[in-house]
Amino acid sequence: xxxxxVDYSFAAGHALRGYKGKCENxxxxxxxxxxxxxxxxxxxxxxxxxxxxxxxxxxDVAQRLDHRYLNDLAPFDSLNPSAENLAxxxxxxxxxxxxxxxxxxxxxxxxxxxxxxxxxxxxxx
Length: 125
Ligand SMILES: [Zn+2]
Description:
By secondary structure, the protein is of the alpha+beta class. It contains 2 helices and 4 strands; from the N terminus they run ββααββ. It has helices at residues 51-62, 83-98, and strands at residues 2-14, 27-39, 103-111, 117-120. The longest helix is centred in the last third of the chain and has 16 residues, at 83-98. The protein is elongated and about 50 Å long. The N and C termini lie close together (12 Å). The mean pLDDT is 94. Zinc ion is lined by residues 14, 23, 27, 29, 112. Zinc ion binds at residues 14, 23, 27, 29, 112.
């Protein structure tokens, strides 16, 4: 199996509902997102997927969130905008944009800070 990853960063504000602590207050993060695609077969150029295509798909999703208050945007107007839920959101959105082509989204990691991240990986390894 081959895996290809692209990192992307964006800035956004959020507040965690029902959380007792500093993160219940409005604050912002410079988020980093890493999307990893996986597949068995390479194309004639020896690529699993073009980095540029994956980057464009991530950018397409991230642009909707960039410099916004996440709690105002669906699905985060009802779903808490935690790093975990953001990772699943990117996973589902990218999966829809990548199509199949024998390539699947394997996992998505979202960093809120350099030291803290959450990963969504639905397929057991
Ligand atoms: Zn936060």
